[in-house]
Amino acid sequence: MIDPVEFLLTPYEAADVAAVQAIANGMASSEQQKRALQWIVEKACRTEDDPFVPGEPELSANLSGRRSAGLAIRKLVNLSMTVVKDTTPRRPRRS
Q1: Which of 11, 53, 55, 79 is most buried, judged by most C-beta within 10 A?
Q2: Angle CA 38–61–74, to nearest 5
Q3: What is the pLDDT of residues 20-69, one digit of tens each?
C-alpha cells in the first residue's frame, strides 16, 4: 500500500525556497522567477505526472487537482497576447 503522506511530499532545494520567497516579496531576479515557476509547475503541481494511482482514488483526485493548477499556469505562460481580451472593468461614460 502507498503511504499518501510520503507520496505527496514535494521535493525542493534551498534555491527553490529562495526563488519562491523572492517572488512572494516582489524581489526575484529573472533566474529566480524562472526557477520558481518551474518548481511550481513541475514539482508542486506535478503537471507531467499521470495523476492516476491504482486503488487510491483520494490520492488520484489530489494529484488531478494539482495537475490542473499546473496546466492552467502553463496555459497562461504559453497563451498568445493577441488572443487575450482586456477584461479590465471600465467606468460607464457620462453623457
Answers
A1: 53
A2: 25
A3: 999 999 999 999 999 999 999 999 999 999 999 999 999 999 999 999 99
Model pLDDT, residue 70: 97
Q: What length is written for the chain?
A: 95
DSSP-derived letter for residue 12 is -
Instruction: Note whether residue 23 is domain-resident.
Output: yes
| pLDDT greater than 80 at residue 89 | no
Q: Could you tell me if residue 92 is inside a domain?
A: no
Backbone φ and ψ of 33, nearest 5°: -60, -45
Please, what sign has the CA dihedral across residues 78, 82, 84, 90?
positive
Residue 43 forms part of a structural domain: yes
**N-terminal to C-terminal alpha carbon distance within the chain:** 69
Backbone angles phi, psi at 29, to 5 degrees: -70, 170
Residue 45 structural domain: 12-79
